[in-house]
Amino acid sequence: MMFVKYKTMCKEHLFTRTEQDGTSLLLIKPSAHQVFLNKTGVKILDLAFNYEDTDEVLTQLSKDYPSVDTRILESDMIELFHLLDIYEIICWDFNATKLYNSFYLDNENRVLVKIAGDKDYRNVSNFIKTIGLKNSIYHCQVELPSYYDPIALRYHTFNDKEYGIFTCIDEEIHSYMSVIPPASEESMVLVITSIFLKPSLEDAVIRDLILGMLNRMMHLITGRVRKIRIGDTGKTAPEIINIFKSIGFEKECELKDEAPYGDLIMYTKFLPL
Questions:
Q1: Model's pTM, two decimal places?
Q2: What are the pLDDT digits (tens) for 7-22?
Q3: Which of 124, 186, 214, 263 is least enclosed, having the fewest CB within 10 Å?
Q4: CB 122 within 8 A of CB 150
Q5: Residues in a beta bridge with 251
Q6: CATH homologous superfamily for 102-270?
Q7: How confident is the model at residue 97 (pLDDT cuts 50, 70, 90)?
Q8: Is residue 249 a contact partner of residue 268, using CB atoms and an 8 Å limit?
Q9: What is the pLDDT of residue 118?
Q10: Which pLDDT tens digit goes with each residue over 138-168?
């Protein structure tokens, strides 16, 4: 991990209750969210407010835990620091860092496809709000800007089981998609709840990005999906519907007066058994 400066902002927004075994329950006051910290997490949190960059924190952690692999300590530190960033307890700029746990869509190693995690929610939120919730090509079930705040994106993942997948070209986000996997063993349907795309992309590029995001998701939940579905209440851009049709989606059904805006049309891609 590269050397990164940061600034602590709102320590007063935190309340911690330490247990006898050294673990702690962290309460984020503004959102009333609770986070469990193990002993290492408690130590990292304490160090975060005593140093000004990640290199210093990691150096001190290595001194405090000499028998623990530095890579493990670094991973724990990264995870907690990204969480603190989401809740605006610290402030830093990770634009120069590389993306983790991703794979390339093309042979030139330019297009990355990634499942969104703690280190990504802020950048994804900025992308969605920068291009606008109602740009020329989009689809979403919720059009409230607050629904796409970093904290909200994380909440949807952990509580609504709504996964986010995004793509980067030359390390700049170009598309984001949220999906809900099958809700139970009895269901085999993956539902696309939103898709946002950088304006002015060519249809062929959009098609490849959508396929890349769907393939990344399918690698995560292999064997449980027989259908991929997107619903349109008349608000989804026709260009998006046509692109989905070009990759195998077809109109499955139409539900009259199902939504406030009118009929709900289901477009479905059937996967081979």
A1: 0.68
A2: 776 788 888 888 888 8
A3: 186
A4: yes
A5: 267
A6: Gcn5-related N-acetyltransferase (GNAT) (3.40.630.30)
A7: very low
A8: yes
A9: 83
A10: 888 888 899 999 999 988 887 778 889 999 8
What value, to the nearest 5°, has the Cα angle with vertex 33 and ends 29 and 34?
105
The residues spanned by each domain of the chain are 7-91, 102-270
